[in-house]
Design a protein that fits this description.
Length: 151
């Protein structure tokens, strides 16, 4: 799949792998892990929080450093947010129903309607009640300035 320009630029390491010191490599691996927790290194430091290097997109908080980030992902609020996010992602990833599945749901609904749905007779009775209620309401509203809205 072709990548958008922005994606490609973000994934391209700033320096060649062989030039990284072990410490830098460790930091990069730690940052990659934190990305799974929606914690990003700030590209541009916020003028309000000049000492903060990371931000959690899920909780909308700034985090000072990598230690702070590791602490943050263990917090209750973050754990709750990440669970919700994962559930949301799973729902979005659900495939649309197949024709066979739709047919099965349709058949099931029809069956329930046939067993427990209201009869033609019931429907007429209910319709009469609604008509009577409408008359009562109209009578009480007659002469007033009220208008029935579609809401
Ligand atoms: Zn968070």
């Amino acid at each position: 799949m072709p990548q958008s320009g922005e994606d490609a630029a973000q994934r391209r390491p700033a320096v060649e792998e062989r030039d990284l010191t072990e410490q830098q490599l460790g930091l990069r691996q730690a940052e990659e892990r934190l990305l799974r927790d929606y914690i990003h290194r700030l590209v541009k430091q916020s003028p309000e929080y000049p000492n903060y290097q990371y931000s959690c997109k899920l909780c909308s908080v700034h985090i000072e450093n990598i230690q702070g980030a590791h602490k943050h992902i263990k917090e209750k609020r973050h754990k709750k947010n990440i669970t919700e996010k994962q559930e949301e992602n799973e729902l979005w990833a659900l495939p649309p129903p197949s024709a066979t599945q739709l047919k099965a749901v349709d058949a099931a609904v029809r069956e329930v309607a046939a067993q427990q749905g209201i009869s033609e007779e019931d429907f007429k009775v209910r319709e009469t009640v609604v008509t009577r209620m409408e008359e009562v309401i109209k009578r009480h509203l007659a002469g007033g300035s009220l208008q029935l809205s579609s809401l």
